[in-house]
Amino acid sequence: MKRLALLSAVLLLVLATATSVLAADGKARVRVVHASPDAPAVDVWVNDAIKAFTNAPFKGITSYAELDPGNYNVKVVPAGATEPAVIDADLGLDADTDYTVVAVGKLADIEPLVLVDDNTLPAAGMAHVRFVHASPDAPNVDIAVKDGPVLFENVPFKQAFPYVPVDAGTYDLEVRIHDSGAVVLEVPGL
Question: What is the pLDDT of residue 161?
């Protein structure tokens, strides 16, 4: 289970590099990441009236949805149901801003982690990566290039580090326990 939960955290790093289109024209854009390892697939409701996302599985990452700026109530419920809401949160959205809302923690303690995304294009030949620690049963971790530099150091659960520019290319990454340096997950070919 721990390996699976760690994998969900690494997936957030992967997907941060894949988007380069920005919210524009006065809209906000929101996507959802399901990172709760023991929660079922979920539906996401906005203001009790709009089913924004359907059947999002563990490790699933939705596309961005555009919304007018403002305040919204967001409820996360088991897929196909309208209750119980495992997350019931109010979310303020600003114009021309991208957000990722990550459902973190085990089901008994699940909560939203709201992140502002920087989807500006990186410089030529570069990529931007961000790591979000979303594994509820893992201690602080380091994310490193195998036989290379540490990209993110001593990251605690529910912490998102700012985007880091890296040379575009393919990397073999390692997730290491910060205190011991033990490699707990290898992510080849990223």
Answer: 86
